[in-house]
Please model this.
Amino acid sequence: MNIAFEKDLEVKGYIDEVINPNINLVEEINRLKKEKNAVILAHYYQEPQIQDLADYIGDSLGLSQQAAKTDADVIVFAGVHFMAETAKILSPSKKVLLPDLKAGCSLADSCPPHLFAKFKEQYPDHLVITYVNCTAELKALSDIVCTSTNAVKIVESLPKDQKIIFGPDKNLGKHIIKQTGRDMVLWNGACMVHEIFADDKLEILKREHPEAKFIAHPECEPHILNQADYIGSTSGLLKYTIEDDSRSYIVATESGIIYQMQKASPDKTFIPAPPNNMCACNDCPYMKLNTVEKLYKAMYYELPEIELDDQLIDKARKPIERMLEISARYGL
Ligand code: 13P
Ligand code: SF4
Model:
C-alpha cells in the first residue's frame, strides 16, 4: 500500500486529505500511470505542470479522438466535465476520472437540456448541431456534434437547403454563419471566459504592440472577432503561431494555451488579451480547478469517476461518432 497520504483513510473525504509533502508527485503520478495502465489526456487550458504530465495535450477534437482510440484501462481527464463525459461516451468500458467533479463549464450550463428540448420542438424540420461544450443529455438531443476545429466543415458538408439549429454557443454560431453564408437558428448561450475581452483595453494593447498580430478563439464575441488577423480553435491558434512569420501575438482565449505557444516558439512573444476586470490574463475558473495534487488523488483512489446511464451513452454516442466520421473525411 502506498503511504503517500498522512493517514490510512477511508475513501470518503479523500479530497481534503493532506498529501505527504515528502513524496514526489510527478514520480508518483508516472508510477501510477504504469501500474494502472492509465493515460492522462489534458486540454490546453490546464495549468503548465499538468500539461507536462499529460500523455496527450490537445483541443476538444483531438482529446475525443484520443479517448476513442486509447487502449488504456483508465482515462484520467485533465479538463472539464463535458470533455470527460465525451471520453466516457466514446469508451464506455473504460474508467474515466476527472480530478475535480466541480470542473464544469459556463457554456454547457447556459443550455439546460429540458429548455433546449422545448426550443427544438419549435423547429421540427431542422437538423440539430451542438458544440461539444454541452452536457451528455444535450448531445443525446442532437444529430451531429462539432468542435471549434471542425464546425465550419461540418456545416459545409450538409446540403445547402438543410435547415439547422445550432447551440449552445451563439458566438461560434455567428462565426459559422459568417464563414459559410448559411442561415442557422441559434441558441443564446456563451462562454464566460471568452465573453469578457475588453475592446478599450485591447485597443491600448494594440497601440503598445503595433507589430503584434491579434488572434482569437471563435467563442469570442463578434466585435472582438472582427478585429482578428486569425480566428481558430486552440490547436488552430497554436498551429498559426508556429507557421506564421510574425514575432508577437495578442491572444484572445484562455491563457493556458500560451504555455504551448511559448514552448513551440521560444523566440516569439505572446501577450494575453485583457479581460474586462482587474486581471491581465483570462483564466477559466473551471479548467483551473484541476491541480497536480487532485490529479494524483484521482489516480490513487480512482475517483471521482464519470458514470453515465447506458441508454444516455447510446443516444449521445451517435452524434459524436458522426462528427468523428466527418472530421476523418476532411483529414481533421
Ligand atoms: P477547443 O480547444 O476545442 O478550441 O475548445 C476551447 C474550449 O473552450 C474548451 O472548453
Ligand atoms: Fe467552458 Fe469557457 Fe471554460 Fe471552455 S473556457 S471550459 S467553454 S467556461
The pocket of 1,3-dihydroxyacetonephosphate (ligand 1) is lined by residues 44, 59-60, 133, 147-148, 191, 219, 233-234 (CB under 6 Å). The radius of gyration is 20 Å. The chain has 15 helices and twelve strands. The chain has a mean pLDDT of 95.
